[in-house]
Amino acid sequence: MSMPDSKITKRSWFYRWFLNNKATVALINILLALGVIWAFANISWVFKPVTDFLMMVFPPVVLSAVLYYLLEPLVRGAEKRFKIPRIWTITIVFIVIIGLIVWGVVALIPIIQTQTQQIIDNWPKYWKNIQDTTNTFLASSQLDGVRDQINTQFNNLSKNVVNQINNNIADWFNNFTSAVGVITNVLVTLATAPFVLFFMLKDGPRFKGEMLKFVPVKFRRSTSELLGAINQSLSNYIRGQLTVAFWVGVMFSVGYSIVGQKYALTLGVLAGFLNLIPYLGSFLAIIPAIVIAAFTAPLMVVKVLVVFAIEQTIESRFVSPLVVGSKMEMHPVTTLLILLAAGKMFGLLGVFLGIPVYAILKILFMRFFDWFKVVSGLYEEPKQIDDPQAPAPSKTIVTTKRIDQ
């Protein structure tokens, strides 16, 4: 028995405001999601074995993935162009990498170790020069009114730095077991990553197809497009950042060597490593170079700044445009906010992984948002409804006159 139309239209306020209200349903879903998160947070001990397993597996997998994105184009190109079997190409690449590592250990590592030790040995002299320069600056008559305040702040800063160092040293000794655990994890990562990388390069082309077998047929096309977009974004970022960082290290090392800057190789390697931090890396790398140059000779500061200007020009005009993966299509403000937030929450690891993780989350969000726009119908443009009272458009009758030949 159907309900009369009058009863259908006359609904209670509870039905209109709660049962048949999209905002209320959305809030209820959010509340349920928060309840699920709260429940999982209170039984987190159940997932501790899984967390420990992931923390052990995560470092070698990430290192292998970075090397995979860097080496996979070389392996694929050799396989297609020279018709070399993939397994032989991978073997040759591994032999070349081992040779480069041996060369670096024999030729570069001793130089970097010597220069680093010299920096540590000379740091007390640099610190004393900083103090003498500060005292000379404070002796100026123009600072008579604020000299005491500056001295107080400087002394407090020095005490805080010393106390922080002492506390960290105490923590290091107290957490000796943790330090041993960290060293063990590093060794396990370095020993495991080559094997993971080998099978990634060997079975990489089939990985996507094997994953799609577990996806329902209805969603395979969209899932394939999603995985392709994520893979392309990660490959562009990793290849771009590593390529640019390598050439930045080379340019700084060569530039510092030409101008006679002390510890040129170490400062260049440091610049290349810090350049993995977008927008901030190069400026962070120039600080120790300027400090060392300032206590070498006043003219050396100018030379270091000239090297920095030349390097930035070459990087921005030639290196970065040639590297396709260096463009993430992200606003600089967004990048800086991500670096600050990720660094605050996850430390150094967050600084390096914040941008690629954001890129993946952005792709997932945009795909979900596109699906939501289609399903919800909230973003459809309203269609024009014909008004029956509107005057009909005038019709123009065009007559043609035939001219008989």
From TrEMBL:
Bilayer topology annotation: Multi-pass membrane protein
GO terms of biological process kind = transmembrane transport
- One short Pfam name that applies is AI-2E_transport
Q: Does the keyword rRNA processing apply?
A: no
Q: Which family does it belong to?
A: Belongs to the autoinducer-2 exporter (AI-2E) (TC 2.A.86) family.
**InterPro entries tied to this protein:** AI-2E-like
Localization (cell): Cell membrane
The protein's name in its UniProt record: Transporter
Instruction: Identify one Gene Ontology CC term for this UniProt entry.
Output: plasma membrane
Going by the UniProt record, its keywords in alphabetical order are: Cell membrane, Membrane, Transmembrane, Transmembrane helix, Transport
Region entry Disordered: which residue ranges?
386-405
Q: Matching PANTHER family, A to Z?
A: PERMEASE PERM-RELATED (PTHR21716:SF53), TRANSMEMBRANE PROTEIN (PTHR21716)
Q: Which residues cross the membrane?
A: 21-41, 53-71, 92-112, 176-201, 242-259, 279-310, 336-361
- Coarsely, its chief localization is membrane
